[in-house]
Amino acid sequence: MEKQITNGQKMSQLKAINNKNILYSCWLLLISINLFSSEPIAYLNTLGYEPAQKEIAYSLNGMVTTQHFLATSVGEKILNKGGNAYDASIAIAFTLAVVLPRAGNIGGGGFMVMYDKDTSKAYSIDYREKAPEKSYRDMYLDADGTFNKDELSTFGYLASGVPGTVAGLWEVHKKFGSLPWKDLLEDAIFYAEEGFEISPYMADILYKYNEKMSYFPETKKIFQADFPDFKNRKLFQKDLANTLKKISLNGKDGFYKGEIAKKIAYDMKLNGGLISVYDLENYNPVWREPLTSSYRNNKIITMGPPSSGGVHIIQMLNVLENYNLDSLEHNSSHYINLLTEVMKYAYADRSKYLGDPDFFDVPVKRIISHDYSKEIYEKISLGSSAPSIDIHPGMYLDSESNETTHFSVADSQGNVVSSTYTLNSTFGSGVVIKGTGILMNNEMDDFSAAPGIPNQFGLLGAKANEIIPRKRPLSSMTPTIVMKEGELFFTTGSPGGSRIISAVLQSILNIVDFKMNLEEATFAKRIHHQWQPDILDIEFSVDTKTRNELNAMGYYVEITEPLTCIQTIMYKNKKYSGYGDFRRPDALASGKINDR
Questions:
Q1: CA separation for the pair 247, 163 (Å, rounded)
Q2: N or C: which end of the chain has fewer CB within 10 A?
Q3: What three-state secondary structure class fits 327?
Q4: In terms of Cα–Cα distance, which of 565, 512, 518, 514 is closest to 331?
């Protein structure tokens, strides 16, 4: 308890740090806003970054897109060794745990949606974290029932759920893998042991999060040794390399049993955390039936609960199918008006009805039904804004960090993987388990601490998402595959916390309704509204005419920095194309894959 209080006192300092980070981001945004409206890459240049993606990548034999060029290269390497999309995805995930530590992980969890060409079936696996056995509903509330202001749900040992990534990747390999398991960890081990050059973008992130990453000595030793000058340096993670070697040799058991599990449990107990050896040994991922729907004669395949993303993507597409979107000017005030009103209803329903289906009866069929979407459609009045206070969760129903990472892979056989996984917020809980190199998640914040109390992304929750031991927290992650006439059309996904759902929605609309290519669809400005707070977010800038029209409709508009990063692969005319979103400069899509 003494350590927890100390952590809590530290969080008051971290709040000030976060405010400073926000001001820093706003300054960067202000100096680049006008440049972005005329030339998106100029936005990156003002920050001193060169995007890894220079143009759309094309290939006849497959495509890989990730948020780090080294992970993309590893995915290509696996495909060229004769591996399939599942093998490449596993190798990518382990590599991202090394080269993208702010989000890539083995100490977190996520979701994977797959289309398997051999069986002509879609699959999805839930390897989301679980609440530890010793967790309880009101663990983040003070004695008077108010939320603990020390933010123990986001920082330190008490913030972590039981990690699921290694178990999830192991299950995918058992079902679909073709190359030996150990081959898929070779590159991750190499980059952890031998180090890799820190990119300018990563250097700035490490600098920006210096105080968060310096509180715990184990974390500081690894990630802040070169502070303040990270540029032209290498990041070495020797302990993580040793952990990956054990996973390479022993598979899932190398993480959830034996030496590594004991180290996690011991460090947790020593510092007020709850994860035990029992929790680790009893963790299991779940194969779940993916959600499927149709939108303008395209098949949507996406993730079901405890991801809220897929449910609400289908819900919103069902409403929007009643409109002729291409008759509206893209990102005009009328188009933004329509999307915003639809988003409000979806996010309102999310706040009450979404949770872990193993613990709560989520009314998925009703939410994604066309009858329900028609009722929402009939309540939307274009040209005006319905105040969020007048929209209630499920009012017509029967009675997740901005830091996440997404990658997509398609192979020459037609197998497709769309995967989103995370530590939650940037660098998770800030905790590295001593002697393992494992950076831990802060996913416990994705539960509802109490009805009506928002999490770090401003998302409200209710009883459906309350803390219960062994339960998985609600997520916004939305890995999605879109099929056309029995073949891949495109696959997409994004990080961005609550903004993931709205970003994926707009990615689909840009390609399906507005016939954009990947570069156009990626460069297009994104908007976001999540019901509460009643604020319309628009990326980068908005012209005076559009802002005035939106204000006249009743919207409160805020300009935001980019918080999402779409990773998309498209298949057209027997050719793959890929594009890594410039919003994260290290992102890269590539398809240098040999014909076999």
A1: 14
A2: N
A3: helix
A4: 514
- What is the rounded distance in angstroms from the CA atom of residue 480 to the CA atom of residue 447? 23
What count of other Cβ atoms lies within 10 Å of the Cβ of residue 305? 24
Q: Is the peptide bond before 533 cis (omega within 30 degrees of 0)?
A: yes
The label of the residue with tokens 């017509």 reads 396
CA atoms 138, 143, 145, 147: torsion sign? negative
CB 42 within 8 A of CB 59: no
Quickly list H helices, 361-514: 364-367, 370-379, 499-512
CA pair distance 506, 501, nearest whole angstrom? 9
Query: Which of 127, 39, 43 minimizes the C-alpha distance to 475?
Result: 127
If pLDDT is split at 50, 70 and 90, which confidence band does 4 have? Answer: very low
DSSP state of 359: T
pLDDT single digits (tens) 51-110: 899 899 999 999 999 999 999 999 999 999 999 999 999 999 999 999 999 999 999 999
State how far the Cα of 322 lies from the Cα of 371, in Å rounded to an integer. Answer: 12
Q: Which residues are catalytic?
A: 404
Positive/negative CA dihedral, 267, 139, 465, 404 = negative
pTM strictly above 0.85 = yes
3-state DSSP assignment of residue 589? strand
Amino acid at 119: T
What are the backbone angles phi and psi of residue 339, rounded to the nearest 5°? Answer: -60, -40
Angle between helices 333-353 and 370-379 (to 10 degrees): 130
Secondary structure in 3-state letters for 242-299? HHHHHHHHHCCHHHHCHHHHHHHHHHHHHCCCCCCHHHHHCCCCEEECCEEEEECCEE
The DSSP secondary structure of 134-196, one letter per residue, reads: T--TTTTB-TTSPBPTT-TTTSSGGGPPBP-HHHHHHHHHHHH--S-GGGGTHHHHHHHHH-E
Q: Which region holds residue 148: left if phi is over 0, alpha if psi is between -120 and 50, else beta?
A: beta
**pLDDT, tens digit, 9 for 90 and up, residues 293-349:** 999 999 999 999 999 999 999 999 999 999 999 899 999 999 999 999 999 999 999
From CA 304, how far away is CA 210, in angstroms rounded? 36
Contact (CB, 8 A) for 322 and 374: yes
Contacts of 537 (CB under 8 A, 6+ apart): 499, 527, 528, 529, 558, 559, 560
- Give the whole-angstrom CA distance, residue 430 versus residue 445: 14
Compute the distance between CA of residue 315 and CA of residue 366 in angstroms, rounded to an integer.
Answer: 10
**23: how many CB neighbours lie within 10 A of its CB?**
10
Which pair of structure tokens corresponds to residue 252?
A: 């899932």
Angle, helix 165-176 to helix 85-99, in steps of 10 degrees: 160
Contact 60, 595 (CB under 8 A): yes
Which of the 8 DSSP states describes residue 445?
A: G
Cis peptide before 357 (omega within 30 of 0): no
Cβ–Cβ < 8 Å for 403, 441: no
